[in-house]
Amino acid sequence: MADAATAAPPETEPHHSGHDHGHDHHEALAHHFEDLDQQFEAGKLGMWLFLAQEVLFFSGLFAAYAVYRWHHPEVFVDAHTHLNTTLGAVNTIVLLASSLAIAWGVRAAMRSDRRTILNTHVFTLGCAALFMGVKAIEYTHKWDEGIGAGDWYSYDPATHKGFNYWGDWTWGDYMPGLAIGSLVIGVLVALWGARWAGNNALVKGWVTGAIGVCIFSFGFGIVLAKGVMPTELELARAGGHDAHAVHDAGHSEGAIDGASATEASPHGDIAPIDHPSGEGLAEVDAAPDQVGEPAGAESGALNPNPIPRGELTDPGPDPGPEAPPAAEPPTRQPKFTEANFFSIYFVMTGVHAVHIVGGIIAILWVVGKAAAGEFDADYFLPVENVGLYWHLVDLVWIYLFPLMYLIH
To answer: Using CA atoms, how far apart are residues 137 and 223, in angstroms rounded to an integer?
Structure first.
C-alpha cells in the first residue's frame, strides 16, 4: 500500500503534455498563447497588417504628387531648385546606415547578444536624430526665404521671395544657439547615463545615454547642414545680396523708362516712338493740337498723314437703342505655383518626420528592454517588429529623395 501511494504522484504529473517545450514557460509568453511560436507568428502578422496600412497611407500622398506633377511638370522642375540636393543625399546615406545597424541588431537578438543589440540601436537613434537636425535646417531655410509653413500665400513667384512679417526676426538666427546647446547638453546627458550604467543601473544608464546621443546627434546634424547650406538671408547680410539689388534696380529703371515712353502722349492709341536720341518723344509733346502732325516741320515730317484730333474722339456710328450685355468671362481656375509644390513637400516630408519621431520612441523602448535582458534567442519579437517599422520609414525616404530633390 505504501508503495502504491508513493507511486501515485508520478501518474498525475504530466499536465502539459501537449506543449512541453523548453521555451513554453518563458516569462515573455502571454497567457492567451499556447507557446512562443504561436505568439511570434501572431505578432508578426499584426505587424505586417500595420505596415500594409502605412503603405496605403503613403500611397495616397504619392498618388497626389504624381497627379500634380503630371499636370504641372514645369512648376516642379523650377521649384525643386530651392532644395539642397547635397543635404538630401546626406540624409539618404544616414538612413541607409541606420537600416543596416538595426538589421544587425535583430541578428544579434537572435543570438542573445545583448551588448550588440544595445550598440546597434543606439547608433540607429543617433542617425535618426542627425536626420532630424538636417531637416530642421532645411525647414528653417524655407521659412526664412518666405515659402515656409504659413507663408505660402505671401510667396512672390516673380522674385522667388516671400514677405517676412516678423521684421528682422528669423528662425535661422536661433539655429547656431540651438546647435551649441544640443551638443553640450547631449554630451552631459550621455556621460550621466554612462555613469549610471557603470553603477549597474543598466536600464536607466542605457536609456539616458541613448537620449544623450539623440540630443548630441541633433545638434551635429544642424552644424553639418549649416556648413553645407547657409541660408539666403545670411548670404544677403554678408554682402552676397548686392547682385540681387543691382538686378532689381535694373528692372526698376527699365520699368520707369518703359512707363515714360508710353505716358509721353496723353492718348493710349499712339504707340511709343522708338528713337535712339529720344527726340521723337519731345517732338510729340510739342504738337498739342494735332496728334499726327509731323514732329518739327523744320526738321522733316515723321508722319506724312496727320490725323486730326476730332477723329480720335469721334464716337462712331450709333450702336442702336440697347447693346446686349457683354458675356461674363469664365472664372479662372487657381494657378498651380511653386507654393503648391512646397505644400506637397512639407506634407510628405513632415509626415515622414513624424514617423521618424515615432521610430525614435520605439527604439528607445527596445533599448530599455534590451538593457533589462528581456530579449534572447527564444524571444526577440519586439526587436524584429521595430526593425521592420524602421525599414519602412527608410524605404519611404528612398522614394521621397529622388521625387523631391532629383527632378528633371
So the answer is: 9
